[in-house]
Design goal:
With 496 residues, the protein is of the alpha+beta class. 52% of the residues lie in helices and 10% in strands.
Length: 496
Amino acid sequence: MSKRKYSENYIEYGFIAIEHRGDILPQCVICMKTLSNAALKPSLLKRHLETNHTDKMNRDKSYFERLGENVKRQRMDHTGQFYQKNAGIVKASYEVSLLVAQHKKAHVIAESLILPAAKILVRNLIGEESAAKLDSVSLSNNTVKRRIEEMSVDITDQVIAGVRNSKFGFALQLDESTDVTNCCQLLAYVRFIQNDTVKTELMLNHELSTTSKGKDIFNSLDNFFKENELDWGNLVGCTTDGAPSMLGRKSGFQALVKAVSPRVKDHDFQNDLQDEDFIAKLAYLSDIFETFNHLNLSFQGKNCTVADFVSKLGAFIRKLNLWRKNVENKRYGMFKFLSALEIEISDDLSREITQHLSLLTAELQHYFPDTSCCPYVTDPFSVDPADLLVGTGEQEELIDIQEDLEAKKQCKEYSAINFWLSMASSYPTLASHAIPQLLIFPSTWECEQGFSILMNIKSKNRNRLSAPGHDFRCAISNVMPRIDQLAQDKQKQKSH
């Protein structure tokens, strides 16, 4: 049986519409009685008016409209004006709290500065009556704290859902550091694919209560995986700094990760320039330091991939070999400061520079023995399919894509990972190999940036902040909290 629909003309009989379990029902604005959907026809509505409210039969339409507005204001469901006004108040409270978190300010600023400032603006521009309405917006210190925690949890839920549903797996980047109160903070960022877009988000911000050994870091992450039903088997890469606790082959974090995640390769791409022995050997070579600084900066940024790292590192190693040969022949033009000296470089110094360049090359090749990606990851159009040590299906797909003019055009216009995402449906075998490699973080840049922001939030003036992680997540996340959903079930109470 088809459902009847409400007409605006039914107000003439004293009826407005109310929604109940998906049905539209007529409600009398005089006695508040609700009739069935079958009664939504003029004759039945008019009969109710004539039978139950004889003294109101001759009232005009405006009279019933005024009663109808009053009824709507009294409703407690989502159609009522009381509800809508309350939802707006709660939503405003959430949005101001998010603003406080994003600007990394103390929670009390909402009630002590933002609300008084808003009242001044509204009072002078709109009027005192409108300014008085702002008193209903709850912005106390405790309220802002709760709002930020709820939004942080909501953001986390969205990120975890995206990681779970990433069909190409996900990559991690993590590091630990000590905050202003000597608490060891662990940060873990995750890179994954959602809606054919690469996402980089904070996954975990955890205070280590024990030590910062590899097993403690692994246990914290493993517990998080279990609580959120994440699969270690979907991890395609894990990037850390060069600390022994991270790189230990037997008990380090990377060793523990590889024991539970077979897809993870030994990618430790953070170029550690802080090794004292390494720095001592090259202290007088400011040219080398400048070159290394440029190289290190080129590995940083939100959109850097391991393919960028591999190509730049490979080029740098080749340059080191070229410089060593030039120094052996007493050609120093590639060194800005060394070549500017107005003295003759001694044979002993030349030999020392040569030895240091050889040592530097050997160091890089030792820590990064495999500086190669799958050959077609960055440019599938310059690779001979016959040279690939892969299966026939992958070689055939490579031939197909090389003959695809549209794919060749997109390869020039898109970044490597966005190109393969656009090709995933047409060339699934190639994409399934290329995308996981491009998801891997080339450095721990996000973690270092995160620590700077975290130290700004939990500063000397806010060292008693018990849970900085919620403020931190709201401050740095690209995911917006679902404020409308969070505000939906809130009551209009001062404590909220």
